[in-house]
Structure formats: C-alpha cells, structure tokens
Write a structure and sequence with these properties.
globular, 15 helices, 403 residues, mainly alpha
Length: 403
C-alpha cells in the first residue's frame, strides 16, 4: 500500500508541475519571457497526459488487479523506467521542443507503455479476466497502444513532409483522440465497474454488451471528428456524425447501468466520492454534446478558426472529466485524502478558467467585447489549480502514515 501511495504522490507532483507550467504559459501574454512558448507547451501537454493521468491510472489498475500477485518488483522497475522517460521529456522539451533528446525519451516512453501492457496482460489473475471491469480496462490498454501510432508517425512526417504538413497535425490528433476517448475514458469506466463488482451490484449483461459494443464503434468513428478541419470529402463528415451519435447511444446504456447501481452507491460510497462522480458524469455529458456539435461542418470550422474552443475542450476533458474522476477513485481506494476546501479551490480555478477560455473564443467569433485585464485575470484564476494540487500533495505527503 505504501508503494502505491508513493506512486500517487509522484502523479500528484507531475500534476503540480503541469499546473505551474500552465500558469507560466499564461505569463507570456502579460510580459516578455526569454523562453520558447511552443517548447513549454510540448512539455506541459506531455507531462499532463503521461505524468499525472498515466501514472495515476496505472497505480489504480495495479492496486485493483495486480497488487496481490507478488509481482511488485517487476512493477517497480516498469514505473522507475517510465518516470525516467517522463523526467527526460520534462527536462528536454522546454529547451529544444521535438528534437533528438526529447524524441529519444518520448520513444522510450512508448516502449515503457508496451512493457506495462505486457505486464498487465500476462499477470492479470484468472478470476478477473471475464469481469466487465477488466473487459473495459483491457480495451483501454489496447487503445493506449493504438494511440502510439501517432507519435511514431510524427517522426516520419517531420523527416519527410515537415511540421507544416497536414499529416503532422493529424498524427498528433490521432494520438490525442485515442488517449482521451479510448485509454483514459474507458479505463476510468473500467475502474467504476470494478467498484460496482466489489459492491455486488448486478449489471444486466445485455445492457453492458450493448454499451461496450457501441462505445468501441464510437471511439473508432469519432476520430473522424478530428479530421474535419481539413475539409475532407463528405464521407468523412458522415462517419464523424455517426461516431458522435453512436457515442450518445453508448452512454445512454452506460447511464442506465449507473442508474440501477445508484441506490447502492448512495449507501456504500462516501458523500465526497459520490459528488465527484456526479460532477464528472455531468462534465462527461457536456463533452459528448461538444463532440456532437463538432460533427456539424459549421462548428468544425469554428474549431479551426478559433483555437480557444479546442483548448477549452481539451481542458474540460483533462481537468474536469478525467482529473475529477481520478480524484474520486484515488480517494475511494484511500490513496489520497481530499477535503472540501481543496476541491472548492480546484473547482473555482477549473470553472472560471474554462469560462474565460470559452469567452475568449466567443469574443473572437461573435465580436463580444474584450477587456484589457483578461490575461492577468486568467493567470490568477489558473493559479488556483496548482495551488489546490500543491496543498493536496503536501497533505498527502505529511499524512501518509495516518491512512
């Protein structure tokens, strides 16, 4: 247990660094900074996805399925190797962007993910193999592997066509899509099903099969939402729209399953975990609606013209849906100890920064009034997020023995 708490603290430390880098990026709009903005963005995004979310998810998956298999030594090696790769990216991206050293560490990280996937598939106990939760977790790991095609392609595209090529962005969007919508979301759903299984909540087999089939179809087809900015042939718009609609159907079944489980959740889960899950579910619903809107050519073009909408959507998913759900699960499995003061501070930073980011997009699109204080206000509001995470990390480090 102490090992997993240590890894949770490492994940939180990465989240703190991500938040501080986010604030640093805001400062570029206030006064001149002798640094490369694009390079910092690369470090920010890589540590966000591969540091905080990846390490937190892997820690939870190991605790749920593998902590009693006697394979902690091998698991430690994988995590140490993974952290060396993340730290390598953290120290190289801000100074050189995509270049020799950062590409080496990025490549090694991909190898670390394959090693981890092998470790989980090989050592998963037999009793979990047919459980709904592991079915979702296994699929999420395959999506993680599939997403790695994007980074592999980036190197080839840069060497042949250059960063200005449309294929450079498509490679990145391919990676982000299957990370966010395949690996992250499906892994979190798998953990939620694990909790249901531990609480002896019976899930209708037919409903689960419908949900799982539709969700996988939607994950594949909704990737085409990420290519609409290139103004492709009509067939791609049709595939993207089908993917967005099928996703809605998939989550209709998912929320029906949750509705049946909710009475047990209300009795067995703590009020804080319950409220975090409800909020994550609400934010997930809005995310799905965002994706449905983006299937329409007009709104797809808006995302191309005004990048604030894309940034707002990515932060909505990362800071809202994914991070709040991770907080709920880490609290439930006693890997962190949250309190309402920390959560309120985090939520104020998240909600108001999202409002400001989307306002900026609306201001450019609809010619809403601008205000000179915008960069300073966004910087101050954004700083509440690393402040909340920093307090949580310190609290976790100083109270580990009292769990």
């Amino acid at each position: 247990m102490q090992l997993l708490k240590k890894h949770t603290n490492i994940a939180l430390a990465y989240f703190l660094l991500v938040g501080l880098m986010g604030v640093f990026l805001r400062l570029f709009y206030i006064f001149p900074i002798p640094a490369n903005y694009g390079f910092i963005v690369h470090a920010h995004s890589h540590v966000a996805l591969l540091g905080w979310v990846y390490i937190a998810l892997v820690t939870l998956i190991y605790k749920l399925y593998l902590s009693e298999t006697g394979k902690s030594r091998l698991y430690r090696r994988i995590i140490w190797f993974t952290n060396i790769c993340i730290i390598g990216m953290l120290l190289s991206f801000p100074f050189q962007g995509y270049a020799f050293i950062s590409i080496i560490f990025s490549t090694l990280f991909l190898i670390a993910t394959y090693w981890l996937a092998w470790f989980i598939f090989k050592h998963i106990p037999k009793k979990y193999k047919k459980a709904n939760s592991y079915v979702c977790i296994k699929a999420s790991i395959w999506y993680m592997i599939l997403s790695s095609i994007g980074p592999w392609a980036v190197g080839g595209v840069m060497a042949t066509l250059g960063k200005a090529s449309v294929w450079y962005k498509l490679s990145i969007y391919f990676y982000l899509h299957f990370q966010y919508n395949g690996w992250f979301i499906l892994a979190l759903i798998g953990i939620l099903f694990y909790i249901m299984e531990q609480l002896s909540v019976k899930t209708d087999r037919k409903q689960f099969r419908s949900f799982f089939l539709l969700l996988n179809i939607s994950i594949i087809l909704s990737f085409f939402l990420s290519v609409l900015w290139t103004k492709p042939p009509v067939i791609f718009y049709i595939l993207a729209a089908v993917g967005a609609i099928v996703q809605m159907l998939a989550f209709y079944y998912f929320f029906r399953i949750l509705h049946d489980a909710w009475p047990v959740f209300k009795k067995k889960l703590s009020p804080r975990v319950l409220k975090l899950l409800k909020l994550s579910g609400l934010l997930l619903t809005v995310k799905i609606l965002f994706q449905l809107l983006s299937a329409l050519p007009y709104f797809a073009n808006l995302a191309l013209l005004y990048k604030d909408f894309v940034i707002g959507y990515l932060h909505w998913t990362f800071l809202g849906v994914v991070s709040l759900c991770l907080f709920a699960f880490l609290e439930h499995f006693k890997l962190v100890r949250l309190n309402w003061q920390i959560l309120i501070l985090y939520l104020i930073g998240f909600i108001f920064s999202e409002l400001l980011i989307f306002y900026r997009g609306m201001q450019l699109w609809l010619r809403w009034p601008s205000f000179a204080e915008y960069p300073v206000l966004l910087t101050i509001i954004s700083a509440l997020i690393p402040l909340a995470v920093g307090i949580l990390l310190v609290k976790n480090l100083t109270s580990n023995t009292k769990f």
